[in-house]
Design brief:
Length: 226
């Protein structure tokens, strides 16, 4: 099974139409877009906990869950682009999908050539956004923005995407107090997330860093001291 070791894929497809998902994944792989397919929400979350995906293709009607609910769960921890893929064609469904964090909405049946072109275009934009940012080293930490990996004294911290983004933001603003509002806007891209989301991620980072680099400034926010 794929859970044995970390891998990075271009696309994760979540669709309980197993044959369709398999055919789509095989087609994308044939054109160099590394794709893995799962058929349930649980498999999707387990995959994301262990591996990386640059883009998610998500069906709305899953056997034991809704793609809408799964999207909301994914958005708590991941900024990965999500393309909804569904046979449902109502404007209401499309608006819901886009308003809860979806980046595009593709209707079934889809043309494999067109879908692949859309995915390649989005992946290229994501890669271009990384620009020339490469590696930042400070206070025993090495932040690799291309690979989205962080190391402490050359030991991989094994950060999840949201944890990496939060640490990178702290390092960028090191020795300055940053407010929770600023963190929500810059890391989550959303100021309506509760404080609890920040508290959980900061606690996880503190555990992995193993020291008191991230300090709470009561009534103001946090400071990453070097």
């Amino acid at each position: 099974m794929w859970y044995n070791h970390l891998m990075k894929y271009n696309v994760l497809m979540v669709d309980d139409e197993v044959m369709l998902a398999k055919m789509t994944a095989e087609y994308f792989n044939a054109f160099g877009v590394e794709t893995f397919a799962v058929s349930s929400a649980n498999e999707c979350l387990e995959f994301l906990d262990q591996h990386q995906a640059d883009l998610i293709l998500l069906d709305i009607n899953l056997a034991e869950s809704s793609g809408f609910d799964l999207c909301k769960t994914i958005r708590k921890d991941y900024d990965t682009p999500i393309f909804f893929v569904s046979a449902r064609v109502s404007t209401e469904d499309m608006l819901i999908a886009l308003n809860i964090g979806g980046d595009d909405y593709i209707t079934k049946p889809y043309d494999l050539n067109v879908l692949l072109a859309k995915i390649k275009a989005r992946l290229k934009r994501e890669e271009d956004k990384k620009g020339v940012i490469s590696i930042v080293q400070v206070a025993g930490l090495k932040i690799d923005h291309i690979k989205m990996k962080a190391y402490l004294k050359d030991v991989d911290l094994d950060l999840k995407p949201k944890e990496f983004k939060l640490l990178a933001y702290f390092v960028l603003n090191r020795n300055k107090v940053v407010s929770k509002e600023a963190i929500l806007a810059e890391v989550w891209g959303d100021t309506f997330i509760t404080d609890g989301a920040i508290n959980v991620q900061v606690s996880r980072l503190r555990e992995k860093l193993g020291d008191e680099k991230i300090k709470t400034v009561w009534g103001q926010g946090y400071i990453f001291e070097t």
